[in-house]
Amino acid sequence: MHILEKKIREAVEAGRTALVPFVTAGYPEKERFWNVLEELDDSGADVIEIGVPFSDPVADGPVVEGASVKALENGVTLRWIMEGLKERRGRFRAGLVLMGYMNPFLQYGLEKLAAEAQEVGVHGLIVPDVPLDEAVEMRAVLAARGLALISLVGPNTSEERMKRYAEVSEGYVYVVSVMGTTGERNGLPPEVPEVLARAGEVFDLPVALGFGLRSPKQLEALPKDIRPDAAVFGSSLLRHIAEGKAPADFMKAWGAQRRDACR
Amino acid sequence: MKKGYFGDFGGRFVPELLMPPLVELEEAMASILPSEAFRKELADLLTNFAGRETPLTYCPALSRKLGFDLWLKREDLLHTGAHKINNTLGQALLARYMGKTNLIAETGAGQHGVATAAAAARLGMTCTVYMGAEDAERQSANVRRMRLLGADVVAVESGSRTLKDAINAALRAWISLQGSTHYCFGTAAGPYPFPDLVREFQSVIGREARAQMLKNTGSLPDYVVAAVGGGSNAIGMFAPFVPDASVKLIGVEAGGSGEEGCLNSAAINLGRPGVLHGEYTMLLQDDDGQILPSGSISAGLDYPGVGPEHAYLAASGRVKYGVAYDHEALAAFQALCRFEGILPALESSHALAYVLEHSGEFEPGSRVLVNLSGRGDKDMDIVEKALHL
User: Are B172 and A180 inside 8 Å of each other by CB?
Assistant: First the structure.
């Protein structure tokens, strides 16, 4: 079982929804970001998605894009992220995933990225502009280093296509809740129960729901049998951080159990 | 070659949520484009609405000066002022056959936006055009034209507030609107099948020009020259000549001011391969893979990437890609006005500039065909300012 799958399964077995915060690297400031990451880890995050900023984030809504712009202004590069993770290797109990667009990864060099990612304790990648058909080589390069390429599916992904994803996917499957880019809303779009049911049927992996989550109440409104194993939150957390509030408070609102700071 | 690829270039690097509409489009191309009903209706629109076929014009004065025969393919005479209408009529009609009722488009200078708005109005469809906020300010006449034609114009404030950000915004919008909406992509770039689709509709330029050259001169041209931004006028002109081994093909990228460290739009000459807007192609980017802002006096060439087929034609050596600078384009603009009585778009002026600046590369007595992709009325303010008129 891939370690990312294991992290989420452990949470589910403990009777809770696994929590997967997303935070853009180097946001809001370079040093503060590392504090945020550590605080999220200490507050009980099961998996943390670290956003790798890109100049043209076509799958993101305004909040994540804004954080990406800010991070680039702060001078954040993939190299800086990898170096920072290396310094903190072994510090995090959550699973770590890099989420970013193809071009920065490609220019870094996929082989080099995979080798270094494994070395610094990253467990997987999410690359929203690399769908199934373009992912073959990347998936193989990552798999050779034990890294999962997390699959994204959405309300318009057919059962047949989900099955093709299921054949090659590891870690967890990321269900995009909304036919649009990331952002927040109060309820959940009407197509969510249907796509969750389909993904739950097709994939043996844990299902994470994301894009547009802001409150645990959104999940409580779903029928129990299709509730996702994990909840991913990005925009709402970034906004919380931008307001100068503690990430721990945000995690608490999602029912996170604080971990002992000592290991 | 791998499906959707030109050699190493092309592909479909898009969010999973955009795969269904791209596959739907690919299937519609296969089933609808070859049908007689579609072909007839498009031919009628191109002839009676857009103004095809466009003339092939000999340039007597410039030919005397240059020592070879200069011919122009007159896409500047088309409705809305440029070759863009070839593509928008084709895509709008295809979209209507697909049952779509709404078009979205990106635009840089506004030419593709105007051509999309005109096609939408003609075919009874609604239309939203995404335009970088900076472009919308500097091309306000085209914003007004689009609005008169019934389109909504959305000024995009994100990123560099130019064409690449308008494409990002349009792709995002397409994710949520895909049921009712076709994304009328403006150049021969983007995720597969757009490079094929746009080439298909723009190839009418090269097909006509090839037949006209044979008819008027009794032989094929020795050289064919076209400006390359995203590359739609160039691929439309080149594609029918690619199999003609005797015809030398020259694409001309915009070099910007040419000063050390200044912005340019020459992705093939000065870029490296990477992924942007759904395709693997030549890109202006920094060492970390962040896309660099582009620059050119010609808004229509101002783009940090290039269509994947051009990247392939450059790599294979079939097409040579040169560079023309802002001041050279301005000189060519003036030359065509003064010597031939034609006011060219600054985009097309780059193609002409290459011929004028590098006239020694062309065999004396040869036949040189330049794609005059658009007219220059839209560029009056920019030209007057640059030339201090």
Answer: yes
Question: Any CB–CB contact under 8 A between B15 and chain A?
Answer: yes
Q: From CA B204, how far away is CA B357, in angstroms rounded?
A: 28
pTM of model > 0.80: yes
CA atoms within 13 A on the CB side of A102: 25
* pLDDT surpassing 70 at residue A184: no
On chain A, the residues whose CB falls within 8 A of the CB of B274 are 103, 106-107
Closest Cα in chain A to B178? A179
A179 phi and psi, to 5 degrees? -80, 70
How wide is the angle at C-alpha B307 spanned by C-alphas B301 and B312, nearest 5°? Answer: 125
Domains of chain A: 3-248 (3.20.20.70)
Cα distances (angstroms) measured from residue B141 to each of B87, B109, B347: 22, 10, 18
Q: Provide CB contacts within 8 A for A4, sequence distance 6+.
A: A47, A95, A97, A123, A124, A148, A150, A170, A171, A172
The answer to whether A164 and A132 are in contact (CB under 8 A) is yes
Hey, how many other C-beta atoms are within 10 angstroms of the C-beta on A249?
Answer: 11
Of the partner residues A69, A108, A130, the one whose CB lies closest to the CB of residue B13: A130
- Polymer length of chain A: 263
ipTM of the complex: 0.95
**For residue B107, what are the β-bridge partners?**
B131
User: Do A153 and B16 make contact, defined as CB atoms within 8 angstroms?
Assistant: yes
Contact state of B15 with A131 under an 8 Å Cβ cutoff? yes
Burial A21-46 (b: 16+ CB within 10 A, else e): bbbbbbbbeeeebbebbebbbbbbbb
The sheet carrying B69-74 orders its strands as B56-58, B69-74, B367-372, B223-227, B248-254, B319-324
Q: What is the DSSP letter of B47?
A: I
Of A103, A108, A157, the CB nearest to B16: A157
Q: With beta carbons less than 8 A apart as the criterion, state whether A76 and A100 touch.
A: no
Q: pLDDT tens, B352-385? A: 999 999 999 999 999 999 999 999 999 999 999 9
Distance between CA atoms of B116 and A152, rounded to whole angstroms?
Answer: 32
Q: What is the DSSP letter of B240?
A: G
| Distance from the A165 Cα atom to the nearest Cα atom in chain B, whole angstroms | 11
| B263 within 8 A of B339, measured Cβ to Cβ | no
Question: B165 to chain A: which residues are within 8 Å by CB?
Answer: 56
